[in-house]
């Protein structure tokens, strides 16, 4: 579930996207709209950065550029990878087909030969039986060789198909990962969130919990560090998130400096403990020689019958409360709580 905006919010995004789309050289179609929709809603930071770079100084996007943005930042499986895999599968199937055709022809030839040898044995003079049997034996050897070749080819094809399956899995997995940090990206997070919403434990003390956190004073940090050192700082934060996450948790980078941790089957106390561990871990990281990093976090738990928008909204509300109360802290909101800003 990628988009969770309300009708009013999506209508506002449409009004913002259309003027921008109409100024481009690319045709107005769903792919173009997806690119500009994700840009104007600020839900895809990597896409927005590349888009702004391409359109600086009044430049406009053409069709290939628009499709390239879509493939890199939105499409779940790159079309070129899909085409390559389709070609590989086709090659495997053609190889198997050719091999089975050849084996089928040899089987048919062998069947006719058996009939000929049977007739020859019946009509052979006493001294000719050995020659007929020798021919039958050689024909049987040839047939066995053909069957062995077919079995070897089928085994090789089985291994090729297994390799292709791994490539598909890898491509799909990479499409769900943030390239900078190796954590899940927004797409991967949305999939895991959709699974959480179906949890039978929603609304109970062990319902899934969500941590949202972002770096304090990120704009100043970007200006202070520059992009290369900032990327390294983000990788360090991601490593800290990964270090506290357990195998059944989902750690994600949602935007530039926004990180999330989905925790199924946990209570709020456990989620709060993890959030404090994360906050303390990030506080040990050096932004530069003079300053350490810090992280503000919001924690909440899934309520019964909640939508993704409600669940995320309350976590974001808790995060904003941490910022409002001085940053570098954790705020917890239970499913039935709200923060009065």
From TrEMBL:
It comes from Roseateles chitinivorans. This is diguanylate cyclase. NCBIfam families: GGDEF. Residues 147-174 form a coiled coil. GO terms for cellular component: plasma membrane. One of its GO terms (molecular function) is diguanylate cyclase activity. One of its GO terms (biological process) is cell adhesion involved in single-species biofilm formation. It comes from the Bacteria. Residues 206-335 form the GGDEF domain. Keywords: Coiled coil. SMART domains: GGDEF. It is an enzyme of class 2 (transferase). Its EC number is 2.7.7.65.
